[in-house]
């Protein structure tokens, strides 16, 4: 069996507070932003991306928002100059393929996002991309599962000797996180909300409450007993 590397975790957010909070748990090997996440923050997007880069040592993905090829290329070049840890995120649309080809030739690090079908990675098989983002949760919102496709995508990347890392994204719950890890995704980008719900597992919290109630009873009834 292929020796698997330790999974890296990126935080899927544009919130500086969340980045600083989850850094304490060692869960910020990098950050992925997107136009929606930046828009939700109600901030000046470029300024925010710069601030994120200053607070994170790992890769920070900033997504192209232009749609015309020439403008996409210009925006990609501009974004790549923000910081040395910037990765330019390109949406998987027709123009995205040629834009990726041009930016890769300029040695700009790239993250192809909005991958929903493992076969889509083939459009980039001869392009030097760093990450291929495969969307797990967003399709489940529509009742379709992409879980079995993760390992198929991993095989397609390996068979075609692509150097990119598989990055599973749009992780809504623990099941999606687990299947991404065991299917061999090198990187998983997780929204803060998902980490919060995994950390605060109902049974962990109830169990702790139960233990502490028993402990209070013991202290009440047998004064002086302690650990
Ligand atoms: C990936 O890089 C995106 O930021 C992420 O998948 C967004 O996913 P969602 O909008 O479905 O949560």
Average of per-residue pLDDT values? 95
Order of helices and strands: EHEHHEHEHEEHHEHEHH
Based on CA atoms alone, the radius of gyration comes out at 21 Å
Distance between the termini: 47 Å
> What's the story with the biggest beta sheet?
8 strands, parallel, barrel
In this entry the ligands are:
erythose-4-phosphate
Structural class based on helices, strands and sheet pairing:
alpha/beta
Biggest sheet: strand arrangement = 1-2-3-4-5-6-7-8
Beta-strand content bin: 15-25%
Low-confidence stretches: none
Shape, principal axes of CA atoms: elongated
Number of strands: 8
Tally the helices: what do you get?
10
Helix content: 40-55%
């Amino acid at each position: 069996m292929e020796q698997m590397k330790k999974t890296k975790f990126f935080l899927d957010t544009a919130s500086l507070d969340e980045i600083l909070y989850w850094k304490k748990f060692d869960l910020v090997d990098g950050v992925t932003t997107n136009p929606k996440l930046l828009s939700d923050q109600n901030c000046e997007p470029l300024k925010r991306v710069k601030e994120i880069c200053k607070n994170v040592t790992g890769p920070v993905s900033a997504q192209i928002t232009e749609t015309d090829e020439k403008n996409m290329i210009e925006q990609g070049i501009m974004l790549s100059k923000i910081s040395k840890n910037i990765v330019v995120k390109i949406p998987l649309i027709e123009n995205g393929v040629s834009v990726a080809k041009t930016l890769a030739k300029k040695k700009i690090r790239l993250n192809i996002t909005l991958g929903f079908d493992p076969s889509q990675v083939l459009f980039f098989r001869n392009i030097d991309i760093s990450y291929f983002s495969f969307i797990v949760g967003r399709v489940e919102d529509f009742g379709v599962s992409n879980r079995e496709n993760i390992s198929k995508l991993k095989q397609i990347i390996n068979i075609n000797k692509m150097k990119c890392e598989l990055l599973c994204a749009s992780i809504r719950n623990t099941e999606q996180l687990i299947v991404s890890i065991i299917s061999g995704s090198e990187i998983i980008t997780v929204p803060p909300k998902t980490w919060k719900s995994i950390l605060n597992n109902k049974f962990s919290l109830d169990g702790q409450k139960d233990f502490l109630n028993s402990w209070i009873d013991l202290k009440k009834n047998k004064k002086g007993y302690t650990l």
